[in-house]
Amino acid sequence: MASDLSDDMIDTILDPKIWLALVAIAHAVMGIIIPTDWSKSSNKAMGGYFLLTSVTLLYAAFMMEGEEQARLALVIAGPVWVWFIIS
Questions:
Q1: Rounded Cα–Cα distance for residues 76 and 87 (Å)
Q2: Residue 32, Cβ neighbours under 10 Å: how many?
Q3: Is 34 left (phi over 0), alpha (psi -120 to 50) or beta?
Q4: Which of 85, 36, 39, 9 is nearest to 77 (CA)?
């Protein structure tokens, strides 16, 4: 019984959909929206370009399933997560 509960918790924690959505939100808010000076047109263009990464992450989270989703989570969200930890 306890083993089944911990297995369910581990499956929930390691769900790629959760991690992709969390990284997309963190990337958009903390990485782009808050630190960008939106009064300059060049910053608007740069911010818009970088927000496309969040759109890709959300697409992978909600439009894909299974092994494809897990691979995209590793390839896309992994480096972004490391970037947040380092900076």
A1: 17
A2: 18
A3: alpha
A4: 85
Whole-prediction pTM value? 0.73
SS (H, E, C) 57-76: HHHHHHHCCHHHHHHHHHHH
Angle at 32 between CA 30 and CA 38, to 5 degrees: 125
Mean pLDDT value across residues 55-80: 87
| 4 pLDDT more than 80 | no
Mean pLDDT of the region 23-38:
90
What integer best gives the mean pLDDT of the chain?
85
